[in-house]
């Protein structure tokens, strides 16, 4: 039970009934010195290209029928072992991979875990940055870390 709230130069002290001070909202931030452990983690989407060659083995009466069967059944996402119009018409495929990875790898930051903006009756409902409560965001304007992990200068820290 909170019995006293004191405001001293942008510091809110909350005194519980036992007389002990709890955490403080300092300059519009809460628990900045002891933040949620997820804050600052970044999520990446990595695209790495490998060359894949699909080898098809097709049984048909003519090349045209083989081309039609390939057009109907081709699927570069999975291997095929299927029939055409009759059990004699067949199509099989298998992958051959170039795993050298010599194609460029692209990295894209897609999310970051950031502290939330909050209000509290003990702070007269003035907004503050709550480092105890974290949230993942895809909005890059809310991110606080550069790709190398260093801080982005945030102007509105409250």
Notes on the structure:
This protein has 158 residues and is mainly β. It has 2 domains: 2-45 and 105-142, no CATH class; 51-98, no CATH class. The chain has 1 helix and 10 strands, in the order ββββββαββββ. The strands form 2 sheets. It has a 7-stranded mixed beta sheet, with no helix packed on it. Strand 7 and strand 8 (90-98) form a beta hairpin. The longest helix has 11 residues, at 63-73. It is elongated and about 85 Å long. The two termini are 27 Å apart. The model is unreliable at 13-21 (pLDDT under 50).
Structural key phrases:
mainly beta, 44% strand, 10 strands, 3-stranded antiparallel sheet, 158 residues, 7-stranded mixed sheet, elongated
Strand content: 35-45%
The oligomerization state is single chain
Major sheet strand order: 1-2-3-4-10-9-5
The overall strand count is 10
The general outline is elongated
Rg, alpha carbons? 30 Å
Largest sheet: 7 strands, mixed
String of helices and strands: EEEEEEHEEEE
Integer count of domains: 2
| Number of alpha- plus pi-helical segments | 1
Which class best fits the helix and strand makeup? mainly beta
Gap from first CA to last CA: 27 Å
- Mean pLDDT figure: 76
- Extract low-pLDDT stretches: 13-21
Percent helix among the residues? under 10%
